[in-house]
Amino acid sequence: MGRISGLVPSRFLTLLAHLVIVITIFWTRDNNIQASLPPHFTSEEYEKEDSNVLPACTEVMMFIAVFVLKKKSF
């Protein structure tokens, strides 16, 4: 059977979509943090919520790194 070469592999599309989502999350991080806080919040509450968001963003970046390293052949 012939292989369809005109389509982009779904793995690449998934990785690209994940990268776009991560960039969007980092770009709107401030708005997302403020949305999770009450209307009137203190700077301590903001800093606490920001420190809770950072590990999740780091985990997403590690997820992308694993895919990239898995794709390379050493």
TrEMBL record:
Residues that span the membrane, as ranges: 12-29, 53-69
Key words of the record: Cilium biogenesis/degradation, Membrane, Transmembrane, Transmembrane helix
Keyword Transmembrane helix set for record: yes
InterPro entries cross-referenced by the UniProt entry: TMEM107
Keyword Lipid biosynthesis: no
GO cellular component: membrane; MKS complex
Pfam families for this protein: TMEM107 (PF14995)
Protein name: Transmembrane protein 107
Lineage: Eukaryota, Metazoa, Chordata, Craniata, Vertebrata
Domain of life (superkingdom): Eukaryota
Biological processes annotated in GO: non-motile cilium assembly; protein localization to ciliary transition zone
Membrane topology type: Multi-pass membrane protein
Cell location: Membrane
